[in-house]
Design a protein that fits this description.
D-Maltodextrin-Binding Protein, domain 2, Arc Repressor Mutant, subunit A, 13 strands, rod-shaped, alpha/beta, about 45% helix, about 300 residues
Length: about 300
């Protein structure tokens, strides 16, 4: 018997309804079919099974031993089909599913996390995976299909035609120090005032590092020489807590770190000039259809740019 090809969902539902109601007429009514059609369907099922599933009494129907075995499996299959239907509808509607996104640190804090929070509050069943890292790493993840969309920068050698590119914005750099730093609270600080202090900053070639160095060069001021290199925010916070060290961070990250919610004792220096990082973009793969849940997150991100 090739039951997987012969039996259809309506066959399974008929078996279940007859077992519940113990009358063929009532089972037929529950399925909105005629009693003769239900009788023919049951006969076909029993022929395919090679054995009767019900004993026909004058006023009711009783499961045979084989029918009891079949019913156990029928109800498992029907439950799985109902669960599958609900799950597919939920995924298609963007109420569940997996969202895999990536961002450089600033926009990850400033717009990606609020967007994810909004969608998660509305649809708790959505599972999110967030990767924060340098743009080169994120673009690689997007190309490989590991990420649905990213917020990152494109280097000149990268072909933007591979992606859907949504315009975003530039980042501003904020210089963070502990609240006991000698320059904390001093207004309109020139670059000369901060150049002689120790700095902890991202490695050479990083966008924030480039923005800081460009600002010093444009002002004709020597670039800080006493520098520790680290892209780890945990390391940065540890160093700042122990000494009068300056750390450049994106404005979004600085707002979080100086906020009272974290109980941090960090402040932003009041600089006379602005330092701006090259713009980032929201990128998705042209060859990859976004899942509905990821589309919802993308829309929320774009609202916040």
């Amino acid at each position: 018997m090739d039951l997987s090809r012969r039996l259809k969902p309506n066959h399974l539902k008929l078996i279940d309804e007859i077992a519940k109601k113990q009358k063929l007429q009532l089972a037929a009514e529950a399925l909105s079919i005629s009693q003769p059609a239900a009788s023919r369907m049951l006969a076909d099922i029993e022929t395919n099974m090679g054995t009767p599933l019900f004993v026909r009494h004058p006023r009711w129907m009783e499961l045979t031993q084989a029918g009891q075995a079949v019913l156990r499996h029928v109800r498992v299959v029907l439950w799985e089909l109902e669960t599958l239907e609900a799950e597919v509808e939920s995924i298609a509607g963007g109420r569940s599913g997996v969202v895999r996104v990536g961002a450089v640190t600033g926009p990850a804090v400033g717009c990606l996390m609020p967007a994810l929070r909004k969608v998660k509050d509305e649809s708790p069943d959505i599972e999110t995976t967030i990767e924060v890292g340098p743009s080169v790493q994120l673009v690689r993840g997007l190309r490989e299909g590991r990420l649905d969309f990213i917020i990152a920068r494109l280097t000149p050698e990268q072909d933007s035609s591979e992606f859907h590119v949504y315009p975003a914005r530039s980042e501003r750099v904020t210089l963070l120090v502990r609240d006991t730093h000698p320059l904390a609270g001093v207004p309109d600080l020139p670059l000369e005032a901060v150049a002689g202090y120790e700095w902890v900053i991202q490695e050479r070639g990083s966008p924030i590092r480039q923005a800081v160095e460009a600002a010093f060069l444009e002002a004709g001021t020597p670039v800080p020489a006493n520098v520790s290199n680290s892209s780890s925010l945990l390391i940065v916070l540890s160093i700042i807590a122990q000494a009068d060290v300056i750390s450049p961070q994106s404005e979004e990250v600085a707002e979080i770190l100086t906020g009272s919610a974290l109980g941090a004792r960090l402040v932003a220096l009041q600089m006379a000039c602005d330092m701006t990082v090259s713009p980032y973009f929201v990128l998705s793969n042209r060859s990859q259809q976004l899942p509905r849940a990821s589309e919802r997150v993308l829309k929320e991100v774009l609202k916040r740019l």
